Amino acid sequence: MPRITSAKVIVTCPGRNFVTLKIETDDDVYGLGDATLNGRELSVASYLTDHVIPCLIGRDAHRIEDIWQYLYKGAYWRRGPVTMSAIAAVDTALWDIKGKIAGLPVYQLLGGACRDGVMVYGHANGKTIEETVENALHYQQQGYKAIRLQSGVPGLASTYGVSKDRYFYEPADADLPTENLWSSEKYLRSVPPLFEKAREALGWDVHLLHDIHHRLTPIEAGRLGKDLEPYRPFWLEDATPAENQANFRLIRQHTTSPLAVGEIFNSIWDCKQLIEEQLIDYIRATVVHAGGITHLRRIAGFADLYNVRTGCHGATDLSPICMAAALHFDLSVSNFGVQEYMRHTAETDAVFPHAYSFADGMMHPGDAPGLGVEIDEDLAAKYEYKRAYLPVNRLEDGSMWHW
C-alpha cells in the first residue's frame, strides 16, 4: 500500500493567487489538489499546513473515502468554505495518486466516460449590448455551443461579469475591497434587450446563459425569468442568495426559465432542499469548494434522483488542477449538464502544464494517468502571493448589498 510520507502547500500568483497541495508517497508517486479560496487563500493554506498535513503522514493513500470521513467527521467543526476547500485538496490529490498508480486517467476510475466530451460555455461580455453580442459571435465562431451573456448596465459605472479583457476576467482586483454601486431596477431593464439582440444575432442553435450573481430578491428574479422566457435561456445563475433555500420556491412559482445555483456551496446540505423540492435545474457546486471529487459525486448522485443536472463552476479562481478534476468528474457522471470554462492566462498555464484540451465547444481531460496536470515548482516560486480582495456592493443609497 502507498503510504503518505510528506505533503506541502504551494502558494503562487501567476496573475492571480492559487493554493496547491502536493502529497507524496513512499513509492515516489505524488498527487496534486487545488485549495484555492478566492480572496481567502491563506486561510486554507494555514488550515492545511497547521491542522491537516500532520494528520496525513503515514496513512494509506488508497483509502480515499476513509480519509475524507476522517477529515470531515473527525474535525468536529464541520463544513464551511475553508474546511471543505482543504478537504477537497486532499481528496483531489489522492485521486491523482490513485490514477497514477493504476496507470489510468481519473475518469476511468470513476466508472469510465458517459460521453465523448464535455460541453463548456464561454463568457461573452461588453460595456454595451452591442459589444457583448459581438463578443458572443466571436465565441460562436470558435465552436462554442453555449455562451454566457453579461453586459454593462446603463447608469452604473461597473457591472459584474464585464471585464477589461475580452477573455480574462479576474474580479479580485485590489489590495483592499473595491466598492461598487448597484441598482436592481436599472439592471432589470437592461437584461431582456440583451437577450433579444443576442437571439437575433446568434440564432437558436446556441445555448444562452446569464449570471445574476445573487443580486435580486426572489420576486424580482421571478419577474426577470418570466421576461426572458421568449428567448429560452439555458439557465439563470445565482438568482438570489441561497442561504434560505426556500427562496427558490417563490421564483419557481413565477417562471419556467431554468435555474442554476451553487458555486459558493460547500456541502450537500447547502442544496438538499433545493434538489429535493426540484427548485433548481442545475447544481453548480465545484470540486475545490465542495469537498473534492468524492463529495461532488455524492451531490451529483443525489441530484440525479430529482432530474437535476450538474453545471460546475469553472472560473479562473480555480487552478488548472481543479479544472482537470472537474472535467474527469463531468465526463463520468450521467446527469452532467454543462461546464463553465474561463481560459487561464499563459503565465498560469506555464505553471500548471496540463493534458486537457478544447475543440468544437467541448473539452476532454485527456488520458494521462491521474488528473493529467503538473506544477512547475521553480516557476511557481517566482510568483509571490499578492493580496487581492473581491469587490463589495452598495446600493445607490449607500447601504450594503450582495456582491
Question: What's this, in brief?
Answer:
The protein is an alpha/beta fold and 403 residues long. It is 35% helix and 17% strand.
Taking the alpha carbons of the first and last residues, their distance comes to 47 Å
The CATH topology of the largest domain is TIM Barrel
CATH architectural group of the largest domain:
Alpha-Beta Barrel
What number is the mean pLDDT? 96
Shape: globular
Sheet-strand content, in percent, reads 15-25%
Order of helices and strands: EEEHHHHEHEEHEHEHEHEHEHEHEEHEE
In DSSP terms (H or I, runs of 4 or more residues), the helix count works out at 13
Strand count, sense and barrel status of the largest sheet are: 10 strands, mixed
CA radius of gyration: 20 Å
User: CATH superfamily assignment of the largest domain?
Assistant: Enolase-like C-terminal domain
Could you list the spans in which at least 5 consecutive residues all have pLDDT below 50?
A: none
Q: What is the CATH first-level class name of the largest domain?
A: Alpha Beta
Q: Which percent range fits the helix content?
A: 25-40%
Q: Any idea how many domains?
A: 2
* Structural class by sheet pairing and helices: alpha/beta
Number of DSSP-assigned strands? 16
